[in-house]
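Lab channel / #folding
Pinned by the channel admin:
"Please post every new chain as: sequence first, then the structure tokens as a reply. Keep commentary short and put observations after the output so the thread stays searchable."

First post following the new format, from NK:
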Amino acid sequence: MNVKSLLVICLFFVSAISIRAQDAFHYTLFDFTEIAMNPALAGSFEGTVRAGGIFREQDFGLQIGQYRNPVLFLDAPVIRGFKKNDWIGIGMYYMYDQQRFDQFDSDTNIDLITTKIFGGLSYHLGLDKKNKNVLSFGIQSGSSNSYFSNPNIVTWSEFGDDPKSDPAEDALPIKDPSGGSNGSTGRANYIGGIHFTSNISAEKYLKLGVSVSNIGRISNSIAGSGGSSISPVRILFHGRYLTPVASKISLEPRVFFQYMQPSWEMSVQAITHFLLNPEKGTSIGAGLGFNTNNGLQFLLNADVKNFRFGYSFDINLSDKTAVSGAAAAFEFGVAYILKFYKKPNPDPVLVCPRI
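Reply from TO:
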């Protein structure tokens, strides 16, 4: 088998792995991707509308295997539920996932691109009169499209110039020098989630949630590749606990775990928050984390009025450092909560003068 055939086979297996990589949820600042992480979190905030996004770039020191993953989201609590303390939320998000896996020369750059648009509903059940404990349920549905960027993808048999024809090799996808658009293949998907919030006090809370993706084990394929696969079910668990440790200082441990057969991933983080201005709600935070895949995490965040900002940098501690360097990934996230409050309209009070 010649060198060109070997490269084609490597490309085929890398693309097969990449299909599953697009379904994985790989974000360090997972609190900036709540709607994509768990549909039960849609509308789970105090305000009118929440909007934001996050940008992640991973393995930027590599020529093959780079990831670029921006996400945009929008959600809101909309109407009251069946009980006085219940409410219904809506949310949607757009995710763009780009992976570079072939960069042997300037004429053969190939990216595997996946786009997702999801929307859903959530129901928040107040477990007490003051809504200190809330149990939320959510479901989402949407479409996911995966395709190769230009040039077009064809097979050896379609290309027709392989001097040593082999039935198995002829079915492998390769680059079409003529270029052209290869289109995309969409697939429906369903995500369900549940979340529990306990506001223990004004400065202390506990948040736990779990979501299940790829419900129904949806079949998918990449346009132009001529094959399909079954998306494995993804189970994702996340938790956060905020507690004060000193005056105007609080500690927030976090945990994130996902399992998608046959692999799993886990992050453990701890962030210290410093309250700078209680009246304006201004605070800054810094912390560390560890991810089983990407290694050490450095975390920064800031709350300024209704804005929240976050930045993270991952340092690779695995054997991949030899080819990628220590820099594994970085993220930048921003979120804004728009608040509209009705002006109070008190009933008129009649004062009877003494006679």
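NK: The mean pLDDT is 79.
TO: also worth noting, Helices lie at 3-23, 34-37, 156-159, 167-170, 321-324.
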